[in-house]
Amino acid sequence: MTMYRGRVHAPRWLLVLALVGASACGGLFRVGPTIAPLISARYLSVHLVAGDTADAQEKARLPTLRDSLAGALPAAWALATQGRGQLFLRNEGDIDVELAGTNGTSALTQHSRGGKVTSRTITVHTIDGNRRLMVPDLMATTLHELGHIWCCYGPGTSGGHWSDPEPTGFSYVGLMFPTIRCQASVGSEPVCPNAFSDRELSEMGLGSP
Fold it and tell me: Where are the beta strands (DSSP E) in the chain?
């Protein structure tokens, strides 16, 4: 998912709503879940790495971004899944997540051989236009792309997202619409949605505790 945010000229104290996200993450036509039965949202392992293509400023940021995301991701996954899922960081994880120090559209990609999925990779871009993204932006994107392993397909969806009208305003709940709405104030880190909705949890096989 590409992260974008419109510039709003406002006093520091004024809280504004900013759009973070893009229609159809990665521009991919998603025809169905990319999961194999062995991958479970209840016990998910992730290999988190920093990419090696970036400008000098982003190369300097990437280790800190990776360490911050790694330190927060297990707790963020537990919160996002209402305590129904656990996430572990491992060198040999169920899925690789790469922080790419470039501008682009974040996406989940599956790699196949002989018609069978052999591995999956999530690329999370750390730059949106001329804006270098912060950890809350990157966390929301990472959770969203992890959610795409299971969600959202079939009736009521389009391109891996919900097709019904998006809620207006800010909410902590709901990560699988085409855009993610974050709250931002000038000079502060954004506050982004951090929990999957009940129907998203159901799609992920986490419909009950």
Answer: 16-21, 43-50, 86-89, 95-103, 107-113, 116-128, 131-132, 157-158, 161-162, 179-184
Q: Say if CB 124 and CB 95 are below 8 A apart.
A: no
Q: With bands split at pLDDT 50, 70 and 90, how would you rate the model's confidence at 34?
A: low
The reply to whether 209 falls in a domain is no
Report how many domains make up the chain.
Answer: 1
Q: How many CB atoms lie within 10 A of CB 24?
A: 17
How far apart, in whole angstroms, are the C-alpha atoms of residue 104 and residue 144?
A: 16
Tell me which residue range forms the domain holding 194: 16-203
Model confidence over 132-150: pLDDT tens digits? 999 999 999 999 999 999 9
Question: Minimal CA–CA distance to 6: which of 116, 131, 93?
Answer: 131
The helix or strand, by DSSP H or E, that contains position 155, with its residue range, turns out to be: none
Q: Tell which residue, 17, 70, 46, 13, has the closest CA to residue 180.
A: 17
Residue 88 amino acid letter: F
Closest CA to 122 of 112, 140, 108: 108
Strands 161-162 and 179-184: unpaired
Q: Is residue 27 part of a domain?
A: yes
